[in-house]
Model the fold of this input.
Amino acid sequence: MKDIRYALRVLIQSPGFTLIAILALALGIGANTAIFSVVSGVLLRPLSFSDPDRLVQIYETFKPNGWGSVAYPNLKDWRDQNTTFDSLIGYTSVTRNLQDASSAERIRGVTSERGLFRMLGVTPLAGRLFRDDDPRDVAVVSEAFWKARLASAAPGGKIILDGESFTVIGVVPESFQFPPDRTTRTEVYVPLDFPPIGQNSRENHYLAATARLKPGATLEAARNEMGVIAKRLEQQYPGPNDGRGVRLTPLNEVVVGSARTSLLVLLGAVGLVLLIACFNVANLLLARAAARSREVAIRSALGATRGRLIRQFLVESSVLAFAGAICGLFIAVWCTPLLLQLSDGQIPRAWEIGLDWRVFLFLLATCAVTGIGFGLAPAIAASRDVERDLREGVNRGSAGRSQGHLRDVLVIAEVGISFVLLVGAGLLLRAFVQLQNTPSGLVTEKVLTMRLNISQARYGEVPAAVNYYGEIQRRVSQLPGVREAAFVSLLPLQSWGWNGDFAIDGRPEEPASRKPQAELRTISPNYFHAMGIPIRQGRAFTERDTADAPRVVIINEALARRYFPGENPIGKYISREFKLEIVGVSADVRQVGLDRAALPEIFHPIAQRKSFVWLAGMTLIVATQTAPENFVSAVREAIRQIDPTQALFNINSMDKVVSNSLSNQSLYTWLLGLFAALALVLAVAGIYGVISYAVTRRTREFGIRIALGAPGARVLRMVLARGGVLVAIGLAAGIAGALALTRLLGTLLGQISSTDPLTFAAVAIILATVALGACYVPARRATRVDPVVALRQE
Done:
């Protein structure tokens, strides 16, 4: 306690030093705490299920690298034939229209087998959960839905989803979320009756599947057994199951996904920022230790041991670290919600991110490590050569040669670490700019998009759905300022879609594992014109491509190149459920994202679809003459006049759709750039401090040189040369570190090499220029030393 009181008195007597040190530490600790709170919520916090480590996600695989949804007959066979799972549940995650008498809104729901909650070990907050004998018209809702829309009423109320009435039988607590990998909360859960589509067909893959391992069963044993079952099913059903396998992934890994690498890179980057902050404070403490050398010598002469002196200095550094941690906590409390807001739904489990016990434990550990880390070297250095310091007196007390070398090493490390961070940020920025400049294949300016889903219960069969979409298109097209309106089943630049195989007439029948594959889209006749997509060969769809006309399709250039190389595909036929004539070839559009090349694609005219499944959800595209945001209300009203219970969602301009497709890269690029900029500021401050301190120590020397006729330019070069040497060594170390560490960025860089010479050169020039600029200010001051004043100080 005496040491703490003394440390507080010493720090209060030097308010400038204390505030600078606390600010540097607060920025570093606060940024680390904010990022760690995200890492804790996403990577470390267990899923809100019973024994979540025993849950696995199961996918069907096909061809060499494909994997995805499950066909229900295969899922049923897996469940019947396996011995390693306690339970295996199929489900679909969908959005649904929540309706009242005059309006509707879109909510996220899950349709699952009735054993879902039993498998996950959920306890209801109110009411009960699904039983095996429940009818299909019951629902379980989330706590937030229950409070906001049902006023926390007792279970038993009615809700209308997609035109059907459901009885609410239970409520799950706020901590429960399934599927856990969604970035938006599930609000309603309803039972799934089989087969909902496809008449029990093994060719309809639409289910997700989660399973719980039996006690004692291992993931490897489950993988081996499921592989054997998949082989057996392939032999029993050689057509639809040809080439089909099984993939098992721990559920936690599914949730984390690619976010793990990005978050760990950010945590490492912000950790380096804190390290630079610690180096800066260590440099400040070394300077203070030099100024207090006579004090230390006197205390030693009065009987203080070296260990006692080191302890006192460590207490002072720990007090600084504690103050920095308290301020850093406030920074983290402010920054964490801001970070989640900026992430725009790109961080999984965002609702579970907060300042929990892991974050506070991390904060305490960071405080302890930094307090000892940046205080130990100055403490050891200050306790050396106390007899010399006492003999030479305070006026000649200095840091000594060893302390000077230590300060130089700290500055070199700061420059090197800053270089690594700046190179990482530069590489990500180049990759991001390259993505932004990648042609999407369509016109994005002055285009409004919105999604609407219709239910078969309300619209019956395909003709009614086609007429409904046609009426919307007609009315919206007539709005003032609207150039054109069109429909597409799945908007481009989304990370999801429908795909399937097909056969090419006149060629030998391929086994299922080697059949041609394509993305599938349903469009209105004017879709290509509204989106500015050129037709390279043949024609676009017209109003004559009705349900009674010959069945036609349009393919894209990627499909033509892959499956019709050197041929004219116009007039040729492909087969899916029906024989289809190719009447046009469209230009390629990037369906998945700007970072992925265009995939083979088949377009069907909306009027020729035979199954309601392909029409249940469509995206309305509105090409406008002015800013598309100005037309949202008018379009909404036009649709409301046709069907007031229709909910619209995902309302965005096409420019926003493009921006959203880049939001993940954008988030990590700007965060790493922010940390790199902060590291640069701290490193420049450190360089300035070292050179400024060196100039102060050599004031007498510079005075004598100037008195003997040395020109100011020579003195300037001497000081700049010292700073230049430190910067050059730091850059060399930084280049070596960057070559080793930037490989961790991996897939985040796209086509940009992790050793891109342009980025390395640009960062080196910028860092060297800024660092030498920091050296120039104290160097300029050295040239203005008054020889008389300098000699009088001695």
About this structure: The two ends are 39 Å apart (CA to CA). The CA atoms of residues 573 and 579 lie 7 Å apart.
